[in-house]
Amino acid sequence: MIRIFNHYVSKMAFILLVLELAMLLASASLASALWFSDVRDQFRADNLYLSSLTFALVIIFSMSALGMYQHSAREGIRTTLIRIMPSFALGFALLSALIAVRPEIYFGRGISSVIFALGASGVLLTRLVVFKSAESALLEARLIFVGSGPLARECMELAASKFGFHQFHVVGCVPLPGEPNCIGQANLLPMGDSLLEMARRYEASEIVVTVTNRRGSAFPIRQLLACALGGVKVIDAATFFEREACQIRIDSLQPSYLIFGGGFDQSFICASSKRLFDLAASSVIGLVTLPAMLVAAASIAWEDGGPVFYRQERVGRDGRLFEVFKFRSMRKDAEEGCPPTWAAPDDPRITRVGHWLRMLRIDELPQLFNVLKGEMSFVGPRPERAYFVERLIGEVPYYNVRHSIKPGITGLAQVRYKYGASTEDAIRKLQYDLYYVKNNSLFLDLLILIDTVQVVVFGKGSR
What we know:
This protein has 3 domains: about 1-135, no CATH class; about 140-245, Rossmann fold (3-Layer(aba) Sandwich); about 270-460, no CATH class. Strands 4-3-5-6 form a 4-stranded parallel beta sheet, sandwiched between helices. The protein starts with a strand and ends in a 5-residue tail after the last helix. Strand 5 (about 205-210), helix 7 and strand 6 form a beta-alpha-beta unit. It is built from 17 helices and 10 strands. The longest helix has 26 residues, at about 110-135. It is α/β, with parallel strands linked by helices.
């Protein structure tokens, strides 16, 4: 994994993106050179470069938006083709919209067909080569876990689930005296040699410390230091989860990790750039989705004649309360005479129009007004109601950390986890929120916005 603006990105995914960008640019340039070599038409060179770059970037965006760089399983030719086809279809639609605004980037009907065919073939070939390379044992990271308790088991499960670009081979776990054993006997390593000798013998590239109590005499601090000095990377479980799952796990979290672990950039430059991004994104998306919002408002009024908008008090930055704006998706008397409750699957309070508004996330669009007012950001932890916040602060450690920045319309937890409707769900989502609060940047905001397209298109997490 590599870090780009504090966010962990798979090396193989990054290499794949660069190779595919180059392949798409080459496809457009090669097709253009062949097509215009007999001077059938005049096409200025600067237009050729602009058109080729536009084509490549739009296709890359379309593939990203449909999750083609979130490689979580081994793929064959058929699966890759199935994933490429809708991505190129979305790219074609986006390019058609751009050509309507900027006609000079239009190649022409005939050459466009050739470019799309060459581009799809190039992407397919690139992916097959990269995926086959990713399965090579030479690219596997070999891990040794120090500890055999519950945290070691969770780390092993996470390592085993990494079937995609970044694969692991777990050599085994080194048990320590006084720690409960949650690992099968076959996965335990004998503690006869030093950790450094063991790492060299098994060719381990990394040692992950999963021991929660590091104060006892049984904790091998000197051996871990020898490993670090001997060229074997040593990390703790919190770093492993942050790097591989984009989570800061509460069960393995110590206050020192938040204090000395870096991140939490709240500088003037960071805040100013994020505010400009919020204003630009809200203005553009507001204009683009205005027709959909008008249709939504008319549909809500037509269904039951009730109010179109719904206001609800939420907790914002530093615990300040504000009113969030949403399209009303429930009955007018949804919470009359009862305490606040989370929405449930097939919730009877949701109207017919509200079901589709929630499915397409259109009910969230009025929150653009909250962003323009400065109460919210476009990307950030979702704001929760004060009733639930008071309860969760008492039950969930570090829950209040998410209120150190502005809440958002969309966020990392929204694109990585399902709809939250329980304390357990709140804990799972908090682990993504803590990662975002610690590592937030414009780069991460852009990635989350792209993932939000996939969530909206496939209706993930809606309720």
